[in-house]
């Protein structure tokens, strides 16, 4: 079978979703969350709420994918439902917050874990060199062959899921000094739900779940996309919710909360408490390897958004071109170049907040887009429907809006950077004459 005719089956599409979601977030964010919400109940609840938010989004995107089974995700949906400028902005954001910055975040986390294994302590220089190296290597692989990239992706995802399951079982069975913890709320802990710390942490958690819409970015490269894309979004998100809750339980079961608070390398800390110093190094090495699955998945999916834009807007025409293997190699290397620049210029916690805030803006607009589309097209015939409509999209919008408002109030700098990125996109849109381009909304 030639490269151009290769399609991702349901298994590969689901793996793509799982791999896109499980990345730097699960191995880093719980430490920051415990800094704001120092409670086992609060930690597990916030990961559950984040999972429900992602699942609601996946159900909505599943219906959109059945209506418009085209690659590009939010870019394609917003352009066709509302106006090309919203699609342009979502695609422009995909160059930074959508994929390039998450690739950088996962690569920085990879570097931190690798550094902890080799040096036993932090080393910013080695961390960034490792991060850049992994970005370059994986970009070369995915620009060479779609089938090879898919096989490597499936292999890395299998390692990642196996690692997390093994980590959970080992933590529950062989932890020598388990913590006395309870899933039930203690006195006064319900008030944490309504605190600014909970809402801000949900921004970080939303980053950890970002990727639940991954298959929608590659719909045209999935077999029978009207059915398989929605199925992969739902199945992949459900798998990750279960894994995330189990892993976080093991974090606090194996390690004192005070040891984890405000630490990025929570997986490394927990691994050393479970397996001892040498065993912990082995597990941390495996975590670093698992992070390559996330980096690979985002380098695989992200450029398809830029490619879809290139088909509509002349300014991005170079990104639309495939190489001889039918792969948007130029788009892959453009995205990876931005990822490298983010690695060189940013710290992990700032990158995480910027990503979570900026991406949430466009997922909110996309969910509103489904509701608007169904209002304007009540007789639309498509194969997948959002269950419990309109409750699911309303729940998604309510949680997302609450989270965004708190983020603006408590993290104004990162929010302003996200809004400044949007403003830059608007300027480019009008200065380059993109506003004069009209394309078919089908």
Radius of gyration, in Å, reads: 21 Å
What count of structural domains? 1
The tally of strands reads 0
Mind telling me the CATH superfamily name?
Amino acid/polyamine transporter I
CATH architectural arrangement: Up-down Bundle
Assigned CATH class: Mainly Alpha
N-to-C series of helices and strands:
HHHHHHHHHHHHHHHHH
Mean pLDDT, rounded to whole units? 82
Q: List segments where confidence is low: pLDDT < 50 over at least 5 consecutive residues.
A: 1-5
Question: Would you mind describing this structure in some detail?
Answer:
The chain has 442 residues and is mainly α. The chain has one domain: Amino acid/polyamine transporter I, CATH 1.20.1740.10. Helix content is 74%, strand content 0%. The chain is built from 17 helices and no strands. It has helices at residues 10-21, 24-36, 40-67, 74-81, 84-98, 100-119, 124-142, 146-174, 196-209, 225-254, 257-260, 266-312, 317-320, 329-345, 348-376, 391-410, 412-431. Helix 4 packs antiparallel against helix 5 (84-98), helix 7 packs across helix 12 and helix 9 (196-209) packs across helix 15 (348-376). The longest helix is centred in the middle third of the chain and has 47 residues, at 266-312. The model is unreliable at 1-5 (pLDDT under 50).
């Amino acid at each position: 079978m030639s490269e151009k005719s290769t399609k991702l089956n349901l298994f590969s599409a689901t793996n793509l979703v799982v791999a896109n979601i499980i990345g730097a977030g699960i191995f880093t964010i719980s430490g920051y969350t415990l800094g704001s919400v120092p409670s086992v109940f609060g930690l597990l609840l916030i990961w559950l709420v984040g999972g429900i938010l992602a699942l609601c989004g996946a159900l909505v995107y599943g219906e959109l994918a059945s209506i418009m089974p085209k690659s590009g995700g939010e870019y394609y949906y917003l352009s066709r439902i509302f106006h090309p400028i919203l699609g342009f902005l979502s695609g422009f954001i995909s160059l930074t917050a959508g994929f390039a910055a998450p690739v950088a975040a996962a690569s920085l986390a990879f570097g931190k874990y690798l550094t902890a294994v080799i040096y036993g302590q932090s080393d910013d220089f080695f961390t960034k060199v490792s991060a850049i190296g992994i970005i370059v290597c994986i970009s070369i692989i995915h620009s060479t062959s779609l089938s090879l990239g898919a096989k490597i992706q499936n292999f890395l995802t299998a390692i990642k899921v196996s690692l997390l399951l093994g980590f959970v079982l080992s933590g529950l069975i062989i932890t020598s000094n388990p913590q006395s913890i309870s899933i039930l709320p203690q006195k006064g802990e319900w008030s944490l739900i309504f605190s600014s710390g909970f809402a801000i942490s949900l921004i970080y958690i939303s980053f950890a779940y970002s990727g639940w819409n991954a298959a929608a970015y590659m719909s045209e490269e999935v077999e029978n996309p009207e059915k398989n894309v929605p199925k992969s979004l739902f199945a992949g998100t459900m798998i990750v919710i279960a894994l995330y809750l189990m892993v976080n339980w093991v974090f606090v079961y194996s390690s004192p909360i005070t040891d984890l608070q405000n630490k990025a390398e929570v997986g490394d800390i927990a691994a050393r408490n479970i397996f001892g110093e040498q065993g912990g190094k082995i597990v941390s090495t495996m975590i670093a390897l698992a992070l390559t699955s996330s980096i690979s998945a985002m380098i695989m999916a992200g450029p398809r958004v830029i490619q879809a834009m290139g088909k509509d807007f002349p300014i991005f025409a170079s990104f639309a071109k495939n190489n001889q293997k039918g792969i948007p190699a130029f788009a892959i290397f453009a995205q990876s170049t931005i990822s490298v620049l983010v690695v060189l210029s940013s710290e992990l916690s700032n990158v995480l907040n910027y990503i979570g805030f900026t991406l949430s803006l466009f997922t909110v607009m996309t969910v509103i887009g489904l509701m608007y589309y169904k209002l304007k097209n009540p007789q639309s015939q498509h194969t997948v429907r959002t269950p419990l409509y309109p409750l699911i999209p309303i729940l998604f919008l309510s949680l997302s809006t609450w989270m965004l408002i708190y983020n603006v109030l408590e993290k104004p700098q990162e929010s302003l950077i996200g809004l400044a990125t949007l403003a830059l996109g608007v300027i480019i849109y009008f200065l380059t004459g993109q506003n004069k381009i009209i394309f078919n909304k089908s």
